[in-house]
Specification:
With about 200 residues, the protein is an alpha/beta fold. It is built from 5 helices and 10 strands, in the order H-E-E-H-E-H-E-E-E-E-H-E-H-E-E. The two termini are about 15 Å apart. The relative contact order is 0.16. The chain binds guanosine-5',3'-tetraphosphate.
Length: about 200
């Protein structure tokens, strides 16, 4: 998505540890005009999938999913909660996420009341790096018996490999910008259609 790539080049910065900082428009201060364009693009990419539920993970995924949902007939948005303790009752789907980015693991939880076999689910998140969070969400969709229609990602760090591994599992992962390489000299994006 050229609008997003241009914005990353203009306002993003690369930090030590392979971290792309985009907090001036994506995940701290939020540019709602850009979020709306992102939502429209997801709707275009997943047109015809009859999506009726969007699943994301706290925190940064929630805002993007809520704006995007308006372009999916106001489908309800469910977000997985991150839990540190094992204090989980039987009414929740749970999955373990090992985050390499943050160097720690956590459980994610979704109430069984809010996702079920009748659902056609789109996953949405802001970043896809090694893919741990997305694996966890896919696991929860599988447990629920719902149909996984795909995953819409705003920024994929292609060089970390998570996206390609999940595509190889047969999941339709659509990322609006895929970074192949980044360092203090600049950011190189994967060419469009080169997925
Ligand atoms: P992982 O397996 O390496 O942990 O990667 P994953 O794709 O699961 O992403 C883990 C978390 O790290 C995500 O945050 C993601 O947003 C964040 N992240 C990964 N790379 C970058 C980066 O280059 N820049 C920024 N800004 N964030 C990055 P999260 O668990 O969804 O938490 P939250 O930030 O939404 O609260």
């Amino acid at each position: 998505m050229q609008l997003l790539i241009d914005r990353i080049l203009k306002d993003g910065s690369v930090k030590p540890g392979n971290i792309l900082k985009v907090d001036s428009f994506l995940n701290h201060r939020i540019d709602i005009t850009l979020y709306n364009e992102i939502g429209k693009e997801f709707a275009r990419l997943f047109e015809g999938e009859r999506i009726n539920k969007i699943l994301t993970i706290e925190a940064s995924g929630i805002g993007i999913a809520c704006i995007a949902a308006q372009y999916f007939d106001n489908s309800p948005v469910v977000f997985a909660k991150k839990a540190k303790s094992q204090n989980v009752d039987g009414g929740m789907y749970t999955s373990m996420v090992e985050s390499f980015t943050y160097g720690r693991g956590y459980d994610i939880l979704v109430s069984k009341k809010f996702i079920g076999a009748e659902d056609r689910v789109l996953l949405i998140d802001d970043f896809l790096a090694n893919g741990s969070a997305l694996y966890g969400l896919i696991d929860i969709v599988k447990q629920s018996g719902a149909t996984l229609c795909g995953a819409g990602i705003v920024i994929e760090k292609g060089f970390q490999g998570g996206g390609d591994k999940i595509r190889a599992m047969g999941v339709n992962v659509q990322s609006l910008a895929i970074i192949e390489k980044m360092d203090e000299h600049g950011i190189v994006f994967r060419a469009n259609g080169d997925k």
